[in-house]
Design goal:
By secondary structure, this protein is mainly α. It has four helices and no strands. It has helices at 3-18, 39-53, 64-67, 70-84. The protein is globular. The protein starts with a helix and ends with a helix.
């Protein structure tokens, strides 16, 4: 799966789950927490990533570097898939 596919899937999840279909509220480089999701939303996002992409997200990987923005989430998932693949 390439980064464009990952981006599309993550954005679709965030838009459908947290933005009620309003894509204009989601920018790839802007922080998710506080703008799109709260701390509970982070847990929902992690659960989605694990189920949808069949990856394991360790507790110490749930950090701003990996979860701060769509861009960071996509890079994180791509890295996990590359190691898995």
């Amino acid at each position: 799966m390439n980064t464009l596919d990952i981006n599309r899937d993550v954005r679709t999840f965030l838009i459908d789950t947290f933005l009620f279909g309003r894509a204009e509220g989601l920018r790839d480089g802007e922080p998710l927490q506080g703008n799109v999701i709260d701390s509970t939303g982070v847990l929902e996002l992690v659960s989605y990533l694990q189920d949808h992409f069949e990856i394991t997200v360790e507790d110490d990987e749930v950090n701003p570097e990996n979860m701060e923005s769509v861009k960071n989430v996509v890079a994180f998932v791509a890295g996990k898939l590359a190691v898995k693949g």
